[in-house]
Design brief:
The complex is a heterodimer of chains A (109) and B (891). Chain A has four helices and two strands, in the order αααββα. Chain A is mainly alpha-helical. A two-stranded antiparallel ribbon of chain A has the order 1-2. The radius of gyration of chain A is 16 Å and the shape is elongated. With 891 residues, chain B is of the alpha+beta class. Chain B contains 28 helices and 24 strands. In chain B, strands 1, 2, 3, 4, 5, 6, 7, 8, 9, 10, 11, 12 and 13 form a 13-stranded mixed sheet that branches. In chain B, strands 16-17-22-19-21-20 form a six-stranded mixed β-barrel. A four-stranded antiparallel sheet of chain B has the order 15-23-14-24. The chains are: A mainly alpha (109), B alpha+beta (891). At the A-B interface, α3 of A face α2 of B.
């Protein structure tokens, strides 16, 4: 099977990547932060999340486009992120690995 | 965004924007690709938070979030290039600054030297104050150490003592759970300490309880701290003393002989007690050697008692219990002596024990003690104020000179602007220049500190270590302050000059633009007022000292040689006196420990004419003297006669001084008698046979008190009246001493020097005033010199025209000087009342004082005027002598 080199991502990167997927069309920096803070019960700073988003984009797991300026943003546009095919593949790989390991735990117990 | 939780604060103001500075900062470092989205997210969050937080907190959080983006991923690519560009400009400015300093060498050196002197003063004073405040800080348990003070009144005498009875410490330990332990110190005075053949005169001997090392943090080098002072024959010695007496050898167990009377065995060695401790000790003898120390009475003042509080013990609750000591023990003890305590208390007698924290020991001037000289906290304040004033004067100079000088640089600014310089760049250039000047001053100041250190220590009469490394915080503060002074001084030229329109400046209308000199004038007035106050202060202190030196003291202090401690000679002291008198240069001799300078003192209560109910009983000085005392000191007998060898009854006779006669309200003193207690329920009456004229035996701060002279032997000092060759007499005396007692050191002093020693405080105050007045005046003059140069330069053309029209040089000097003379006159008017108020307050402290006449004020004003006019006239003369052809040609 022809596969490109496996992309290893960290726990925080995985979380952000998942959240972008969860948020669908509305995945911009601030929304990701809010979502993580409420859904995953973690307190991340804006800058940390933005840094991760940039890194994921560089790795090709996310892609982005700008738009959606509002008044409360002082007329500034947002950068919306969406998960690329490669990104989805990485997420699925992680999920499979985890599931397999979980199954082993259940059997041995 | 409405949330019910915010119902409590429905009226929160939400009409505000995020801090512009934070946004600008973000814009400065953030790359263009990310800036828009990041700012948008930040603004959105900012808006959301408005309902939840106050404006202040919200803006603070905004800043925090902006700072969060300081990660390289968000940075501009050329961020560092930009920073480097700033660096290049800075280097340019630095170069400009140094060139300008060099070009205007005269002005710059005025500026730099004035500021350097100011900074050096501040540094020295800072180190002094720091040293003073460091006293006793080496004690790790310092916050728990308290000293027991006595504040009492008994038989008409006020007691404010740092020493208390020996029973106080043990009783406090027994009764008060707050007290962990106590230690009593006692000063032993001067002893000749001998080990085998090594003998020195020592004055740092104390005795202490075995708990000494528990209370004070003094490391023990040899021996066990717990039992160093438990044995009655033990003495612990300092490292210094161990090296002095025993060299490298182990001193443990070696005998030390004190005055050939007592022998103690060295039990251990402790580290030298730091210089900044409130007591000195090289020999600590065990208090166990003192029998009955624990029975020492409640109203005695024999021991410095220190208590160590338990951790977490409350000093308040201990203080509240202190009165219980007298109630439960002290007054009952007095009752046992047969006195009616209730009657005493009703008559205003009291005796309170107070607790003094360790941090106050070094500044204790109120409670009598003899450990080490303490510092009046007033001196700390005076020094601090002087430091601030000098720095202020120097900074004002700096501002004045920079401002004045900048007028000459208007053209430079004009041309720079024409060529295309932006205002911000010009501001930077001027600020860099003045900051460079102030930093150069700082470096020079550090050298000055090293240079002035010896003089400063001489003024203080003490020295201390100056360590820059321990003062990093202060160093940073100082550099910041200096840069601040530089920026303030440079801001006038920076902000005002850079605003000028090139057209106006280049056309040469600068003079008009610079005319507003009132600010500079008022600064000059301030400088000279402070200088004047210091000059007047110097003169008044000087007058008072002169007054004290020249005052007729009632005895003749000249040509009196005092030989210390003739008691060492034992019975041979009389032989010493007789043999001394055989020298033709010795006119007369007396042996007595009671001298009108710092020496022995003793007092007793005296009842007049055997009347036990005498209401005027008060402790009088009681001095023991011999037959030749009055003749040697040249004290006049105004009534009756001196003690005479022919009258054997003179042993029970007394001579009193005039103050005693007046206090006793006798018209004729001879024939009256005074009675004193001479033992348990035993009283002796003494008949007055003579009255001597009053003489000063204390500092002139005090009134002359009554003295009662009695015949007897007290060989604390031997005093000789010398005529003729003094060195020969000294040599004779020393040889004689060596002959009588070869093993003991011979030491002497002169009465007039001993007298002057009493006024060491005033002397050092005079030096302080003298030096600082000198500094203030010279820094002020530096400024004036610069300003007058500027004024003369400004009016070069005017002077040229006046000369052409026939003005004489004197007229011109008058023209140029009168402006400054006027300022100095205003300063005199401002300074005089302030100086009068301050110095009159100082003189209040003296029972015998000079008048605060107009003399000092006139002299000080004359000095200030003369100096300032001399300073100004240099440039005035220079300008007036200039050939008008030259001065009119300029421009």
């Amino acid at each position: 099977m022809m596969t490109s080199k496996r992309e290893n991502i960290g726990e925080l990167e995985e979380l952000v990547l998942l959240m972008v997927g969860v948020l669908g069309n509305n995945a911009y920096g601030n929304a990701v932060v809010e979502e993580i803070n409420s859904q995953a019960d973690r307190s991340l700073t804006l800058s940390a999340v933005h840094a991760v988003l940039l890194r994921l984009e560089k790795k090709g797991l996310l892609e982005s486009q700008v738009g959606g300026a509002t008044k409360e943003r002082g007329g500034r546009r947002k950068r919306f992120f969406s998960v690329t095919g490669k990104g989805m593949k990485v997420l699925e790989d992680i999920k499979h690995t985890r599931n397999r390991l979980w199954n082993i735990i259940v059997e041995t117990n | 965004m409405w949330k019910p939780t915010n119902m409590t604060r429905p009226f929160r103001n939400i009409d505000y924007d995020p801090p512009v500075s934070a946004k600008t900062f973000l814009y400065w470092f953030c790359s263009a690709r990310h800036f828009e989205e990041l700012e948008g997210d930040l603004l959105e969050r900012f808006e959301t938070r408005k309902l939840e937080y106050s404006k202040f907190i919200n803006q603070f959080l905004f800043w925090i979030e902006v700072l969060g983006f300081l990660r390289p991923v968000f940075w501009k690519n050329n961020l560092f290039e930009n920073a480097l560009w700033g660096l290049t400009m800075f280097r340019m400015n630095l170069k400009f600054a140094i060139r300008n300093i060099y070009k205007n060498f005269f002005f710059s050196s005025m500026n730099i030297s004035g500021l350097a002197i100011g900074i050096a003063c501040v540094l020295l004073i800072f180190f002094y104050i720091q040293n003073e405040l460091s006293y006793d800080k080496f004690n790790e348990k310092g916050d728990r150490i308290y000293r027991v003070l006595v504040d009492g009144q008994f038989s008409g005498n006020n007691f404010k003592e740092a020493e208390s009875g020996g029973i106080v410490g043990p009783t406090m330990l027994k009764d008060f759970p707050e007290v962990e332990t106590f230690v009593r110190l006692d000063e032993w005075g001067i002893y000749y300490v001998r080990y085998e053949d090594t003998s020195f005169k020592e004055n740092t001997i104390i005795s202490a309880d075995s708990t000494f090392f528990d209370v004070f943090t003094v490391p023990v080098l040899v021996g066990n701290a717990n039992d160093l002072l438990t044995n009655p024959t033990s003495v612990a010695i300092s490292r210094r003393a161990a090296e002095k007496y025993f060299g490298e050898a182990d001193p443990t167990g070696k005998p030390l002989n004190f005055d050939e009377r007592e022998t103690y065995y060295v039990s251990g060695v402790f580290e030298n007690i730091p210089k900044n401790s409130h007591f000195e000790a090289d020999f600590i003898i065990s208090n166990a050697s003192r029998k009955n120390i624990d029975q020492d009475g409640w109203t005695n003042n024999n021991y410095y008692t220190y208590v160590l509080l338990r951790q977490n013990a409350s000093i308040k609750s201990l203080e509240a219990k202190m009165p219980g000591l007298m109630e439960n023990y002290g007054w009952p003890e007095i009752r046992q002596f047969g006195l009616d305590v209730d009657k005493l208390l009703a008559s205003g007698v009291y005796w309170n024990f107070l607790l003094q924290p360790l941090s106050d020991f070094h500044f204790n001037t109120e409670y009598r003690h003899s450990l080490k000289p303490t510092t009046d906290i007033k001196y700390i304040y005076i020094f601090g104020i002087i430091a601030i004033i000098i720095l202020l004067i120097a900074s004002i100079n700096f501002v004045n000179l920079s401002t004045a000088k900048s007028a000459g640089r208007a053209k430079e600014v004009g041309i720079k602007k024409v060529i295309g310089s932006v205002r911000g760049e010009l501001i930077n250039q001027f600020l860099t220049e003045s900051v460079v000047i102030s930093l150069i001053s700082l470096v020079i100041a550090l050298f000055l500190v090293e240079l002035l250190k010896p003089i400063f220590f001489e003024i203080l009469g003490s020295s201390f270590e100056i360590s820059y490394l321990d003062n990093l915080g202060f160093g940073i503060a100082l550099v910041t302050l200096i840069i601040f002074v530089g920026i303030v001084a440079g801001s006038f030229p920076a902000f005002v000059l850079s605003k000028f329109l090139p057209v106006v400046v280049l056309r040469g209308n600068m003079q008009n633009a610079m005319k507003k000199g009132w600010f500079r004038s008022s600064l000059v007035v301030f400088q000279f007022s402070t200088s004047l106050v210091l000059i007047i202060g110097t003169l008044v202190v000087f007058n008072q000292l002169e007054y004290m030196h020249n005052k007729n003291l009632g005895y003749d202090k000249e040509r009196l040689l005092i030989i210390d401690d003739p008691y060492i000679l034992g019975d041979k002291s009389e032989i010493f006196k007789e043999r001394m008198l055989q020298n033709p240069s010795v006119e007369s001799a007396t042996i007595s420990g009671y001298l009108p300078v710092d020496s022995y003192r003793g007092n007793n209560g005296f009842w007049r004419d055997g009347d036990m109910n005498d209401p005027k009983i008060r402790p009088h000085q009681r001095w023991t003297i011999d037959y030749d005392y009055f003749s040697t000191l040249d004290i006049k007998i105004v009534e009756g006669r001196n003690f005479l060898k022919e009258f054997s009854t003179d042993k029970d006779a007394i001579i009193i001084n005039r103050a005693c006669k007046e206090y006793s309200e006798w018209n004729e003193a001879v024939g009256h008698s005074l009675m004193r207690g001479t033992g348990q329920n035993e009283f002796t009456s003494y008949t007055v046979i003579g009255v001597v004229e009053d003489f000063h035996f204390q500092s002139l701060r005090n009134e002359i008190e009554p003295i009662v002279f009695q015949l007897g032997k007290h060989d604390g000092y031997a005093t000789f009246k010398i005529s003729g060759n003094l060195p020969a007499v000294l040599e004779y005396a020393e040889n004689l001493w060596k002959e009588l007692e070869p093993s003991k050191p011979f030491s002497f002093q002169f009465m007039d020097e001993a007298y002057n020693k009493e006024y060491k405080n005033e002397e050092s105050m005079l030096s302080i005033f003298k030096y600082f007045a000198f500094l203030a005046v010279s820094v002020g003059c530096l400024g004036l010199f610069g300003l007058s140069a500027f004024a003369a330069e400004k009016r070069t053309k005017e002077i040229g025209i006046r000369k052409v029209h026939g003005a004489r040089i004197l007229n011109l000097i008058y023209l140029l000087s009168r402006e400054f003379a006027f300022l100095v006159v205003i300063a005199i008017v401002v300074a005089s009342p302030i100086a009068y108020f301050v110095m009159d307050g100082w003189l209040e402290g003296y029972a015998y004082r000079t008048d605060l006449g107009a003399g000092s004020f006139i002299l000080a004003s004359a000095i200030a005027l003369t100096i300032s006019l001399l300073t100004v006239s240099y440039h005035a003369i220079k300008a007036s002598l200039l050939n008008p052809v030259q001065s009119l040609k300029c421009e």
